[in-house]
Amino acid sequence: MCKKVAIYPGTFDPITNGHVDIIKRASAIFDKVFIGIAPSETKKPMFDLLKRVEMVKLSTKKISNIEVISFDGLLVDCCKNIGSKTIVRGLRAVSDFEYELQIGYANASLDSEIDTIYLMPSLESAFISSTVVRDILRHKGNVKHLIPKEIVDHVYSI
To answer: Which residue in 152, 73, 65, 46 sits closest to 143, CA to CA?
Structure first.
């Protein structure tokens, strides 16, 4: 039997309830979902890579068919390494679509066997982004309702 394998890549700086929602949806569709965490030094992340990996693992520990990995370099190369032909991306709003479409086409131009599928988060999670969470944190605001409860202490320990 051929296993359906996908990767959900991102910076996850930090992981949000919206990310977890997409991960749960993807895990219901695929036999195995890798959560691929990129260093993204150009984005100047608030949390270092090891902390982001740890937070994603804590947030998803109850989902049996996922594996959290970090990767550097091209996503299509990571796909080859893990045996995935499918990239999962979340779309919150129309504003996400143009950027995601460009990235999807760029990946397809690098490897024509790779497809990108787009999942919408639940309505409750549609407005949540890591950027919003970071901005609230910078201003000492409360983000407990936007992130998984498993990482609250980690987020506030920065």
So the answer is: 152
Task: Please list the pLDDT of the chain residue by residue as tens digits (158 residues).
Answer: 568 999 999 999 999 999 999 999 999 999 999 999 999 888 889 999 999 999 999 999 999 999 999 999 999 999 999 999 999 999 988 778 888 999 999 999 999 999 999 999 888 888 899 999 999 999 999 999 999 999 999 998 86
Exactly one of 19, 25, 51, 154 is catalytic; name it.
19
Query: What's the whole-model pTM score?
Result: 0.94
Nearest of 11, 9, 18, 35 to residue 129 by alpha carbon: 18
Phi–psi pair at 52, nearest 5 degrees? -65, -40
Catalytic residue check, 130:
yes
Respond yes or no: is residue 92 known to be catalytic.
yes
- Token output for 43: 């984005």
Q: For residues 124 and 11, what is the distance between their CA atoms, to the nearest angstrom?
A: 21
